[in-house]
Amino acid sequence: MVDSLKKPDFQEMRPGVKVPSKETILTPRFYTTDFDEMAKMDISVNEDELIAILEEFRTDYNRHHFVRDEEFAQSWDHIDGDTRRLFVEFLERSCTAEFSGFLLYKELGRRLKNKSPILAECFNLMSRDEARHAGFLNKAMSDFNLSLDLGFLTKSRKYTFFKPKFIFYATYLSEKIGYWRYITIYRHLEAHPEDRIYPIFRFFENWCQDENRHGDFFDAIMRAQPQILNDWQAKLWCRFFLLSVFATMYLNDVQRADFYAAIGLNARDYDKYVIEKTNETSGRVFPIILDVEDPQFYERLELCVKNNEKLTAIANSNKSGVVKLFQKLPLYLSNGWQFLKLYFMKPIETATMQTSVR
């Protein structure tokens, strides 16, 4: 009984290799796009900024950063029970997200090599960064006697197709929210080293600068394609992607509040700060941002949290599949309704913000 509490059971494909978590609407996704359309993009409007970013990528500030030191060389059996399970899940989700970025950027670099050499090199160098991140996270999992078979993930995961402009919206937000997530955890643990339960958090300051540079690259690409930012459709799509990213993070993190508590953070407060800062950052390029200070924003997300708790309880019950479906349906409809209400909340126009920032 003690051993089962100490070391949670994870399904393994083979000894030491974890079965990947089941894909759900909240798990990291793998993406593909229209590579021919991407290759035809004219970036001349903002080519100078893209070349400057490329020079930063070439400098490779973190080439010597992701090196494990002696602090890793110890037993981590004292991280046990639910904390151990949630920490392994955190490492797995993070590794999967970074690996997803590696695959997309690597393929873009390969496909654009002879058609858009500046973009191709940028994507190749970003894939280098993402590979380092994913490898470092996967090695961290091995401290808990597990790892992911990244080759298996490449072949087994479903790939979501997005047109290039949607890839830009999604990856820009992914990189910028990654920056705010990493730097917020780093600053908290810098102030409270007693909460740093594992050495990987020491690497987050430099790590998040990779995320920030990647986000700046997508910012520059979108400015090179102003047509994807300056019409009514852009406002609708930016609102959709902002809401999707914020809601997914909030629902995921509240579900795993015990993990954040283990490193001295309140999951809700942490997410609200990250959402506020990412929303504000997005206002430098997106034509609209969300009004996250409207009380309705989190009230509706909390209703979704409660619905998800009920959905989990139903899924874990011993009832038949048909009964479960009928019990889940109104909760799914409720979540959809909350998402619609959130989507149609009045957004904040950012033209004035962009003028003042620039």
Descriptive report:
Mean pLDDT is 91; it is low at 1-5 and 352-358. This protein has a two-stranded antiparallel ribbon with strand order 1-2. It has a two-stranded parallel ribbon with strand order 3-4. A two-stranded antiparallel sheet has the order 5-6. A hairpin with a 2-residue loop joins β1 (12-14) and β2 (17-18). It has helices at residues 2-6, 35-39, 47-59, 81-112, 117-142, 150-156, 164-191, 204-224, 232-255, 257-262, 267-282, 295-315, 321-343, 351-357; strands spanning 12-14, 17-18, 30-32, 159-161, 288-289, 348-349. It has 358 residues and is mostly helical. The chain is globular and about 60 Å long. It contains 14 helices and six strands. Helices cover 65% and strands 4% of the residues.
Could you give the count of β-strands? 6
Cα end-to-end separation: 61 Å
Query: Main sheet?
Result: 2 strands, antiparallel
SSE run: HEEEHHHHHEHHHHHEHHEH
Mean of all residue-level pLDDT scores? 91
- Please report which band the strand proportion falls in: under 5%, 5-15%, 15-25%, 25-35%, 35-45% or over 45%: under 5%
Sheet/helix structural class: mainly alpha
| Major beta sheet, strand line-up | 1-2
Which characteristics define this entry?
single chain, 358 residues, mainly alpha, two-stranded antiparallel sheet, two-stranded parallel ribbon, 6 strands, globular, disordered N terminus, disordered C terminus
Summarize the structure.
The chain has 358 residues and is mainly alpha-helical. It contains 14 helices and six strands. It has helices spanning 2-6, 35-39, 47-59, 81-112, 117-142, 150-156, 164-191, 204-224, 232-255, 257-262, 267-282, 295-315, 321-343, 351-357; strands spanning 12-14, 17-18, 30-32, 159-161, 288-289, 348-349.
